[in-house]
Amino acid sequence: MTDAATLTADRFDKLRLIRSPHVGPVAYRHLLLRFGTARAALAALPGLASKGGARRFQAANTRSVELETRRVAALGAGYCFLGEPDYPPLLAQAEAAPPALIVRGNLGLAARRCVAIVGARNSSAAACRFARELAHDLTSAGMTTVSGLARGIDTAAHTGAGPAATAAVIGCGIDMVFPPENADLQEQIAADGLLLTELPPGAEPLARHFPARNRIIAWMTLGTVVVEAAPRSGSLLTARLAGDEGREVMAVPGFPADPRARGCNGLIRDGATLVQNAQEVMEAIGGDDFDTVRSPESHYNGAPPADLTETERTRVVGLMSMSPVSVDELIRQSGLPPALVQTALLELEIAGRLQRHAGGRVSLA
C-alpha cells in the first residue's frame, strides 16, 4: 500500500489520470499500454478526446489531486495501484479492475483465499445466523471473508468472520460510514482487517456506486456465496459478475414461499452450486492454485494500439449505436485489426461518447 503523503511522481500522475474525465478502468489500462507512462497518457488525452469528437478536454486538476492525497493521508489510509505487488491478486486479473484502491488495514488478507458472502439487507434471522456461522467456519479454515458492509447478510458475515479475518468493500469514500449503525464495525475492520474502496474521500453512498462496489467483491474472491436474495437484487448482480469473470457462484437454498429465497433458488436452478456448509464451499472453489481462475480475454494480446485513419475511425463509429454490441463483433464487421478498433473506442471514451457494458460490450453514450 502506498502512503498517500509520499506518492512518487509516477504514482501521482497515475492518480491524476484516474481522476480525469471519462478515464475508466479499461481506458486506463489501454492508455498505459499505448503511451507507457501516466504522464505521457495525460499529455495525449486532449488529442484523443478531439479525435473522438469532443470540443475541449481538461485533465484532472493537479491541485484537486494534491488535496485528495492529503485527505487520504490524514484519514490514516493509503493507495494501492494496479500493478503493485500488494494489489489484490485475483482482482488484478479482471480487465476492468479498479486502477487504484484506497485502503485502511491489512492488504495481506486479500492475498489469502477469499470468499464473498452476500445477501439480502432485510434478511431473516435464520439466514443471518447461517451467514455468521459460515463466515466463522471459513475463517477457521484460514480463509478471508469478503462482503459489502451492508445491513443484513453482509453485516452477519463480517461479524462471524471477526474483524481480523474479513475485508469490507464500501460504496463510498473511506471517510464515510454506511449504514450508520455499522460505524463501530467499520472502524474495527479498518483497524484489524481490511477496508477498501475505489472512490475518493467525500464520495457519498449513492445508489450508482454500489454496482461498482459489487464487482470488486466478486472479482477479488474465488467464489461468491449468496445466502438470501430477492429477484433483481444487488446480490444477484454480484453473483452474475462473479460468474462472468470465471469465479464460482454458490447459493444457499431457501423455502420457496419466502421471497428472499427466490434469488438463491433461481441461481441454483440456473446452475449455481448448492452449498450448505463451509466444507461444501471449500470443495466448490477447489485447490490453492489461483491460476485455476479463468483470466479475462483481452483483444490487445500485448500489442499496443495504433493510430488510425479518419476512414477507419468512421467505419468503427458507423457500426455502433446506443444498443450495446460486443467488441468482437465490431472487429469482425469492421475488418480492422483489434488494435485499431480499440484505438477508436478509446478516443470515443475519452471524448465522453462511449459507454462500456458488462461482457465486453460497448455502445454510444
Detailed description of the structure:
- This protein starts with a strand and ends with a strand.
- Helix 10 links the parallel strand 8 and strand 9.
- The longest helix has 16 residues.
- The chain is of the alpha/beta class.
- It has 3 domains: 104 residues, no CATH class; 175 residues, Rossmann fold (3-Layer(aba) Sandwich), CATH 3.40.50.450; 55 residues, Winged helix-like DNA-binding domain superfamily/Winged helix DNA-binding domain (Arc Repressor Mutant, subunit A), CATH 1.10.10.
- It is built from 15 helices and 13 strands.
- Helix 13 packs across helix 15.
- The radius of gyration is 21 Å and the shape is globular.
Brief overview:
By secondary structure, the chain is α/β, with parallel strands linked by helices.
What's the layout of helices and strands?
Blueprint (H helix, E strand, L loop, with lengths): L1 E2 L5 H10 L6 H11 L2 H14 L10 H13 L3 E4 L7 H4 L7 E6 L8 E5 L6 H16 L3 E4 L5 H9 L4 E4 L13 H10 L1 E4 L12 H10 L3 E4 L7 H11 L3 E4 L10 H8 L3 E2 L3 H8 L24 H9 L6 E2 H8 L3 H13 L3 E4 L3 E4 L1
Parallel strand pairs: 4-5, 4-8, 5-6, 6-7, 8-9, 9-10
Antiparallel strand pairs: 1-2, 2-3, 3-7, 11-13, 12-13
Relevant terms:
Arc Repressor Mutant, subunit A; 365 residues; 10-stranded mixed beta sheet; Rossmann fold; 3-stranded antiparallel beta sheet; 15 helices; 3 domains; alpha/beta
